[in-house]
Amino acid sequence: MPICEICGMEVSAVKECKECDSKFCEECGDEKSLLCYDCIGWTDDPEDDWAEDKLN
Q1: How many structural domains compose the chain?
Q2: Which of 1, 9, 33, 43 has its CA 20 to 30 A from that of 54?
Q3: What is the pLDDT of residues 21-40, one digit of tens each?
Q4: Is residue 14 part of a domain?
């Protein structure tokens, strides 16, 4: 049985993330968009949050 590279569990099937090539199970990513949860987290964060801190 294949092993999910995100959770480490043996699963019946895995998909390959189109961003990082990790093998993930249905619980650890979005099978429709072919993104693991690690990469989904990176794509959901707006880049503007890293600009500069706004003080007062």
Answers
A1: 1
A2: 43
A3: 999 999 999 999 999 999 98
A4: yes
